[in-house]
Amino acid sequence: MGGQIWHALKGMLLILASIGLAGCRTTSVPGPESATTTPTPEPLVFTYPGEDWGYPSPFARDPRGPGYVRMSLLFDTLTWKDESGVVPWLAESWEMSEDGKTWTFDLRRDVRWHDGQPFTAEDVAFTFAYIREHASEISWSGEIAKVERAEAIDEHTARLTLSDPIAGPHSNLFGSVPIIPKHLWEGIEDPVKYLAPEALVGTGPFTLDTYSKEEGLYIYQKNTAFWGGAVAVDTLVFPKVQDTAVALQAGKTDMASFSGNEITVVKQIEPDPSYAVLPGPSFWVLQVILNTKRAPFDELALRQAVAHAVDRQRIVDQVTQGGAVVANLGIVSPSTEWANPNLPGYAHDPDKAKQILQEAGLENQAVTIIQSGWDREAELIQADLEAVGLQVTVKSADRATVDGLLKEGRFDMAISGHGGIANPSTLRTPAWPATTYENATYDALFAAQSVEMDKPARRAQVWELQAILAKELPVLALYHPLMWVVYEADAGITPFYTAEGIAGGIPIELNKLIFLER
Amino acid sequence: MRQPARTIGGSPSLLQCGPALAGSILLGTLLVLAVLAPILAPHDARTLFEPLLPPSPQHPLGTDDIGHDLLSELFYGARFSLSIGLLSALLSTTIGTLLGLLAGYKERLGYAIMRIVDVFLAVPRFPLIVLMAAFLQPGAGTLLFFFTLFGWPRAARLVRAQVLSERNKGYVEAAQLIGARDRRIMARHLLPSAAPIALPRFIAEFQHVIVAESGLSFLGLGNPLVKSWGLMLSFAFRYPSIMVTDLWVRWALPPGLCITLVVLSLALLSYALEEQAIPHLRAWKSSATLLSQAAYATRSERPRQKPGREGLAP
Amino acid sequence: MGTKAIQTLLTLLTLVSLNFFLPRLMPGDPLSYLDNNDPGTDSAMLLTEEMRSQLLAYYGLDRPLGEQYLRYLGGLLRGDMGWSIYYNAPVWNVLWGRLKWTLLLVGTATAIYVTLGSVLGAFSAWKRGTPADAGLLVATFALGSWPSFFLAMLLVIAFGLHWQLFPVGGARSPYLLDASRWEKARDVAYHMVLPVAALVLTQFSGVYMLMRNAMLGVLGEDYIRTAYGKGAPERRVLFQHALPNALLPVVTMIAMRLGFVLMGSMFVEVVFAYPGMGTMIREACMARDYPMLQGAFLITMLFIMACNLAADLLYGFLDPRVGPSGAREVRSA
């Protein structure tokens, strides 16, 4: 009797073990034809920690930055960016018409797709037309909607006609849209669900060898026939690790990035000569959104009082341990030329805050703060505001809930942040600077700068926008977290931070250029 | 001849006294510390000092990443965690016992109640917690509500099983025959027999809530501004260098140990309780045996004719 | 019999409907995650309102709730669990990818702690009152009182970081691409040691106590005394009389508990970054991925029901009074 149960248990264990082992197969993507040359004696494997960011096709990927970057290793754009600015990529040169509405691209002639087919202007024309038709499934910016016509003039010349001129098209359009092969995507009705290996055929320096969704694992192999020269790395591995600091120090990864309060880890590793540290820009902002659409924050006095009451430096020192800089009140990243250095300041002055409140008759005003995940900041802000006499309640919930409340405008103050602040086009979106901010002058100015082709003029307009924000205070920008990349000094790869971010402003250091022998 | 029966009914050995004593002392101490927290804690847990101070006479455990005194946090955390555990265990056991009594005694009502119990036991808890955290402020009240809501079905099920097996015994039938009212039967006859079930269940629920509350805070679903042991752990493990330095010893270890000690003391008490009852095998059965008995009883659709005799006849 | 079937069907329908409506009660929608801008996850492009509404239409989320519900039911009947919005893959594929790891982890842990707990519990009951029993009790209490995530963390710190004996997380190394099957299996086992240890250490005490109590309950019965009286050897009394009867409630209890195992391993999975159901459900909840959540809850629910059913059947099998051949086997001493 007991023996039967024992047998049953043994059997169960055996079954479970064999299920486990049988299922231990990753979805191996058959690599498209890349010429198998004799392998180098010691293949260089480069590891960088990450997680699952979707199947890296242009449409199935996670639309956020890391998803884009994993796709960009396989696919190329017309232009690209390096540490100093725009560089030619698939397009060798380009020309803009007088009115800024027509762009003609002279394409490279030696490019082949991963499956061996030649790359032509037809692919470029097809890409833009295809994306316009299926744009509903992809989160491109409104810029793609401005492409009226895309045509191939001859085999290596493509022309794009826009409905309106675009300022900075190399970030948002030409430098972001991946070119896809016409011969494989023609007839694919649902690009988001297209997960066949053919969806990964691009012109880029790598091909995908393995992708495991549940393990967040990507393994790339170098494209030996890459048009841009020799690829310095044979295999690129993106595993998911529990703790990047631990993995780096254990030698499990060659490079890792840190930001904000992880500065403590960076400081620990810095003295070690086998690692090099590269400090990066601050393309992210954490802010307190003040609901200007309803009481009590429709009063400018209250907003000003809050600006004086909150000790932003203390938040930077204590919460981020110095891993951030006090924010530009105009939101735009101080690491770029777009930031306005002449903005009015609101020094930390509790007495002044109390005075302003008294004069406006707003002492002892009760306010609530909603936030998700910014517990320490919330606590400090609550302490600061209570010190000037306000009654503060903090409500915490999960991210999606807080975002929902933000959209509906059901809050007094909200702690929330966003990125993309290297690109002035983020100064006005439905969500940014705040869903509750309405200012016709501001909007008009923003519209003007988005078509202004003269850079100094555009900069002046962008500065003006920031001045408005600093005066009106619909948001109180708190800090910009800093970033660092720590990498093994002898790994053979030197990372850099792309000027104004990859594509539309992704601040990650995974620019594919670092893997090329330049 | 080996006689495990030797100790049954004999005088209590240290083994039988020890756990009860140890458990009570441990739990008692922790409860007292929690109650006296405002007096015993060196500082107010919300005051901010210098962050990351090492242990010193003013701050025996040092401070955390924004300057809370860790020892004070530990004391106030004890208050919160223990009171949530105690209250929700009390509430859910009480409600569960009452409903279980009803369910066992009244056939039709019992059926409806048991279906509700089934649903509650099958419903996934995690999204409900997120839901609750979304609509209500995640704090003491919400947690209490949540744990009570999910605690009563288990107690109800066990109590009902016990009531079912008792219901068909002679004395119940006799009481019914002489015309005693249902409420009286339930209160005077069935309730006492449910007590040996309810008490271990209460202890188990207390254990469960303590651990679950800390787990939820650990996952970031609690109120981050209320001091609790789980929250201390949560902030500790969110700190980037926690695992590569010795910080965890004074930040993460104390609250973790406290939770463990509470669970341990409750386990000892639970053990002592059961050990007490075991010599009287015929009157008292473990919850598992009861449940399987009840399962047998309900399945075979025959009321058990011979209570007290179980197992095979040789 | 018919009423029982209708009962089950009704419960099933209720639960399936609950699965459908529950995720939708959470504030936010499945596209919320696109607004989540953690540092380092800035989009290449920005999502406009127009794009958003087009995306909603693409996923069928703009249809009236009733219609979505019926489509969902229809899909289920056809065996189609839907398409996950957050993971961008068929729900079943994602589910199975995670489920297999959870089953492996939890299955192994369960097998170990059930065996260990039963054996030691029976032994403890048999030697009740002796130092062996006391020692086992103390050890069990000491080990079983730790919260699972805390114990997991301690294991990581001690064995993963300090002594570097085991990996600190993950299911397997990504570097063994060309390794043999045997090496891959070894790697998986190697990664399982700490998480399984965490699960075993925290769950084992429950089974141990259960078995010990059940055994004690049985050992005091008349028929045991009779068996001794008849001069049966100790072994026979233990294995043929006591153990089978004690096993009854233990096994059914374990089978019932097993149903909750899928969610219960969440903490350990989170700490060890093990790619199982627990971490997936958490992610899907945060991302409000309705199809994924519906699928995950359905599977969990079916699993629980299957375990309860197995418990019932097992009970019937083990208890000869209720078993297939009625009151057969009379074990004579």
Structural commentary:
The complex is a heterotrimer of chains A (518), B (314) and C (333). Chain A contains 14 helices and 20 strands. Chain A is α+β, with helices and mostly antiparallel strands and 518 residues long. A six-stranded mixed β-sheet of chain A has the order 15-19-14-18-16-17, sandwiched between helices. Chain A has a five-stranded mixed β-sheet with strand order 1-9-10-11-2, with no helix packed on it. In chain A, strand 5 (91-96) and strand 6 (102-107) form a beta hairpin. In chain A, helix 8 (300-309) packs antiparallel against helix 10 and helix 13 (440-449) packs antiparallel against helix 14 (455-472). Chain A is globular and about 75 Å long. Chain A starts with a helix and ends in a 30-residue tail after the last strand. With 314 residues, chain B is mostly helical. Chain B has helices at 14-35, 37-40, 70-105, 107-122, 125-135, 140-167, 170-177, 182-218, 229-238, 247-251, 253-277, 287-300. In chain B, helix 4 (107-122) crosses helix 6 and helix 6 (140-167) runs antiparallel to helix 8. The longest helix of chain B is centred in the middle third of the chain and has 37 residues, at 182-218. The model of chain B is unreliable at 1-12, 280-288 and 300-314 (pLDDT under 50). With 333 residues, chain C is an all-alpha fold. Chain C has two domains: 2-80, no CATH class; 91-332, MetI-like (MetI-like fold, Orthogonal Bundle). Chain C has a two-stranded antiparallel sheet with strand order 1-2. The longest helix of chain C is centred in the middle third of the chain and has 39 residues, at 181-219. Classes of the chains: A alpha+beta (518), B mainly alpha (314), C mainly alpha (333).
Summarize it.
The complex is a heterotrimer of chains A (518), B (314) and C (333). With 518 residues, chain A is of the alpha+beta class. Chain A has helices at residues 2-22, 65-72, 121-133, 169-172, 182-185, 244-249, 263-269, 300-309, 312-318, 350-360, 375-387, 399-408, 440-449, 455-472; strands spanning 27-28, 45-47, 79-81, 86-88, 91-96, 102-107, 147-154, 157-162, 206-212, 217-222, 235-238, 255-259, 275-279, 285-290, 324-326, 366-371, 391-396, 413-418, 475-481, 483-488.
Helix and strand arrangement:
The complex is a heterotrimer of chains A (518), B (314) and C (333).
Chain A: H1 2-22, E1 27-28, E2 45-47, H2 65-72, E3 79-81, E4 86-88, E5 91-96, E6 102-107, H3 121-133, E7 147-154, E8 157-162, H4 169-172, H5 182-185, E9 206-212, E10 217-222, E11 235-238, H6 244-249, E12 255-259, H7 263-269, E13 275-279, E14 285-290, H8 300-309, H9 312-318, E15 324-326, H10 350-360, E16 366-371, H11 375-387, E17 391-396, H12 399-408, E18 413-418, H13 440-449, H14 455-472, E19 475-481, E20 483-488
Parallel strand pairs in A: 2-11, 16-17, 16-18
Antiparallel strand pairs in A: 1-9, 3-4, 5-6, 6-8, 7-8, 9-10, 10-11, 12-20, 13-20, 14-18, 14-19, 15-19
Helix pairs in contact in A: 8-10, 13-14
Chain B: H1 14-35, H2 37-40, H3 70-105, H4 107-122, H5 125-135, H6 140-167, H7 170-177, H8 182-218, H9 229-238, H10 247-251, H11 253-277, H12 287-300
Helix pairs in contact in B: 1-3, 1-11, 3-4, 3-6, 3-8, 3-9, 4-6, 6-8, 6-12, 7-8, 8-9, 8-11, 9-11
Chain C: H1 2-25, H2 49-58, H3 65-78, E1 83-84, E2 89-90, H4 91-126, H5 131-144, H6 148-162, H7 181-219, H8 222-229, H9 234-258, H10 261-264, H11 266-272, H12 277-287, H13 290-318
Antiparallel strand pairs in C: 1-2
